[in-house]
Design goal:
The protein has twelve helices and eight strands. It is of the alpha/beta class. The chain has one domain: TIM Barrel. It has an eight-stranded parallel beta barrel, surrounded by six helices. Strand 3, helix 4 and strand 4 form a beta-alpha-beta unit. Helix 7 crosses helix 8, helix 8 runs parallel beside helix 11 and helix 11 runs parallel beside helix 12. The protein is globular and about 55 Å long.
Length: 306
């Protein structure tokens, strides 16, 4: 309940670790082994919660060729219930709501334990995609079926940089029941600062209290991974992209950038009085990148005030 309490009390300064479930083609025994290794890694970091992503094919959003092929994964809720029963911290299960019929989403909500879990709803990847359930309807359904289930929303600093209205989206989602927000991977500190600042002062203008914003960080071990981040819509400043592409050790350089950016955003949020969390993402299948993500989580854990 510690993570839920910090979010409800708008305290912040918590650490999350994010993974994708195994591929759908993974056998039961191997899935169990992956779960055991994941739990062992988490114990060495001291995280406050585990994020389980719900992967969706986003090719409708970006017509360019996907750098890595889309490979369906096990439903994160199923992976949690079946293989992560020993998880010592709360789980935040993502739901790409456009994939699920309203009846199925409602049934899933009914069976959630609000004392042990939370969720983040993600809408359709593009306006052209016809969703099985819209994001607004998913929010309403949660309020009808499980209003006690802590709910988070997605925050996209890059979108704010383009149209400067993302802070208004956050406030609208907050009114619909979101008690925290999670960004996509952050490389552009200035875009994130713009969003935090506009959100903070818009909350003040409306006499609202800001909720925690969780900043996501990830290591990048190759130029192909960098291409994939850009394909996903992650804003990578040109100087950082140049640095990563020409570095002797791309993985080490990306690790250093993540630490620097995280520290910068922590200091900025503390100064503005915006509660925050840190989410370290580990979605690569490469062992060296997984281990670097674990090191990054340990490093950023030490930067948080408790």
């Amino acid at each position: 309940m510690e993570l839920q309490r910090r979010i409800a009390d708008r305290i912040g300064e918590f650490l999350l670790f994010a993974v994708t479930p195994p591929r759908l083609s993974t056998g039961p025994e191997q899935t169990k082994q992956i779960a055991e290794v994941t739990l062992a890694r988490l114990r060495t970091v001291g995280v406050d919660g585990l994020v389980l992503y719900d992967i969706d094919d986003e090719s409708d959003r970006n017509p360019d060729e996907r750098p890595f092929p889309f490979l369906p994964t096990i439903d994160p809720a199923d992976f949690l219930a079946r293989d992560l029963a020993g998880l010592p911290v709360p789980a935040i299960v993502y739901r790409a709501v456009s994939k699920y019929a309203e009846q199925d989403l409602g049934r899933w909500l009914q069976h959630q334990d609000a004392t042990r879990g939370m969720s983040v709803f993600v809408g359709a990847s593009s306006r052209d995609k016809r969703p099985a359930t819209s994001l607004s309807r998913a929010y309403a359904l949660r309020n009808e079926v499980r209003p006690d289930l802590p709910l988070g929303g997605v925050a996209i600093p890059e979108r704010h940089a383009d149209v400067t209205k993302e802070h208004l989206r956050l406030i609208a989602k907050q009114a619909q029941g979101c008690s925290f927000f999670v960004t996509q991977v952050v490389y552009d500190a200035n875009a994130a600062k713009d969003l935090v600042s506009d959100y903070r002062f818009e909350c003040s203008a409306r006499a609202l209290e800001p909720v925690p914003i969780v900043f996501t960080f990830s290591v990048c071990g190759s130029t192909k991974t960098l291409e994939f981040l850009r394909w996903l819509g992650v804003g990578v400043p040109r100087w950082i992209a140049n640095d990563l592409q020409h570095a002797d050790d791309t993985l080490s350089a990306s690790y250093d950038h993540a630490v620097t950016t995280a520290r910068d955003l922590m200091s900025f949020c503390r100064r503005l009085g915006v509660p925050f969390g840190i989410n370290v993402e580990s979605v690569s299948a490469r062992r060296v990148e997984i281990e670097a993500s674990v090191r990054l989580a340990r490093r950023l854990r030490a930067e948080l005030r408790r």
